[in-house]
Amino acid sequence: MSINIKVLNSFAFLALFSLSAYAEMEMNTVETVTIVGSQEDVAGSATVLSNEDLAKMVDTDIHKILSAVPGVYVRTEDGYGLRPNISIRGTAPDRSGKITLMEDGVLIAPAPYTSASAYYFPTTGRINAVEVLKGPAAITQGPSTIGGAINMISTPIPEANGGFVTQELGSDGLSRTHATYGVNNGTLSGLVEIHENSADGFDSIMNVGGDTGFDKSDFLAKLRYTSGVHELTFKMLDIDETSNQTYVGLTQSSFENSPRKRYGMSAYDVMNNDGEQTSFAYVGNFEAFTLTATTWSNDYHRDWFKVDKANSTKAHGVEDGIDEVIAAANGGDANAQAILDGNLAVTVKLKHNNRFYTNEGMQFNLSKEIGNNAVTFGYRDMEDSESRLQSYECTDQAVGGSLSALVSCSTGFTGSNNRLRTTTATSWFIQDTITMGALAVTVGYRSEEFDKVELRWDDGVPTRTMLNSSYPKNSSGDYTTSGVGATYDLNDNVKLVAGFHQGMSPVFGGDAEQADNMELGFRYNKDVTALEVMYFASDYANLVGECKNSSGGDCEAGDTFSGGEVDVSGFEVTASTVVDGPDSISYPMALTYARTSSEFQSSFDSDYFGTVASGDDVPYLPASQLAAVVGFVTDTGLSGDMRLVKYGSTCSTAQCGEFENIESYTFLDLSLRQKLSESMTLYAVVENINDDVDIVSRAPKNGARSQKPKSIKVGFTYNF
Q: How many domains does the chain contain in total?
């Protein structure tokens, strides 16, 4: 761990000061990982999905979970949610790089400033709750503050000794084991948790066969010491994943013939990743103020070995890039389609996208009530980095689709394949909520400062002694944003909400993405009925696209491009109630709906965005999204839910050509649960009951991808 001495000294000073000054005061132990607080009182949009909410459908795919949050859009990729692509109110969904992602209030993207793409995402099956924060309050959770923040809350330490075991089996060789055990004697408490999840995959591989599933393993441990007003928590997480996933999608004709079959040349594609996360968190809950301080270190490594050049020698009059071959086949090139089908002999070049990430630092929040003011000050000092050391291997595809053994065909250890990017960042915010009777006004201010450096080497071997003559390259950023929000209690049941905030997302080596954001709406709550309606608008001064292997584009991965001014607006609806029926049966119902429009404000040509005309829509931002859940609960322990999720149509590019459109599609899921005793619950879940087959994405690499097919899983949970 390489946290600088300034960070360690700051943390130590805060902890020691608090311990020495307030050692005799009493404190109630609470989990200190939330970012939303009271959902009803937030001056802006916020959603909390509790453990009870998550248990209804036993979801392990974050895309499905977030369907219950209006204004959050997703781009499905693998059907299991392994590599989420999440957008909030129009931010770019690619690898969730334009939103702030956290676990227990700590940034968890591999390198939030240097490379925000979330190739790592917390294993959703072990997550206890999810918080989504939008609107002006989002400026407390940077660095990306345009759309908002998502905080995953891990399993809490139990109040009494005990735990649970969940065992699940399902379609396509699905197996999931989730077990926890915790102890708590008041002063010392702890938790051990394991989560194992694997499947064979629902796709097949033409010509050669092979596995298209995954195997994920998480081990988490927490240890907490509580004394008086003080609470100190150590958390450690170890993760490991092997997934036989690919960037190679299908041409339109291939999709229509066999939507859940992969091309044979992708048989060697595999993602291997592993990581370790540690944190120390201190909480002091004093009479005068509340102090939280956390120091952390995250190390993450991934190597996604995948097809880079589908025709590396440019044989048969066809270009080499896999995205170019797919585009050519969609355009009617018979040789390009034959290469993909394995009917022509070519050399396939695969790339080890081998990268090492670090993310470490410290942060603290100080909260105090002063009369009618509730003031919070926050500070964070951190460093993150991305190191690439990428090489190539080749295989020969014969007529008929068979593949030769892999051989090293070039090192690749030069230029962008051998580089190190590092960012040091300091941020702080101050927020004050002033309560004046029925009116509460929240004002906030945030500062972000960061320095970035990039190095590239030309060794040809992984020794890093021959620095490229154009490097190092340095850049820096200094941005301030502010926001104001207000709530007004119109009566006991209705609360009016309004807010405005400036937002930004840092970009490595370029100007940050910036937007002015506003929202206006109301909340209604009475007994078991709740309704929230929000209108929002985001005016981008500078929409930024970052070239990635996952996003495509005629550009080098890591380069950034300006999309100019873009307007995004829409409205969001959340409604829920419970209807009492006969025979002691109740029927809970929930509905979320979002309607969004987006327009580029200028016309231009870009290596990333392509040809854009003023008025074109932003890619992968559907006009609408609907999620409806209707359930039942009996006094015999039997309950169930039916969920309908409908995604509106969208396009993979602004121009939306013939093979770039994505029509609207739906998921219909059903769950049943039977509580046998206070300790034992059985459950069954059917996903995509209708077994619909639709294109849900045309990325990465221009290829069409299908919905996850109808699948069934059954399991039990035993509490002890």
A: 1
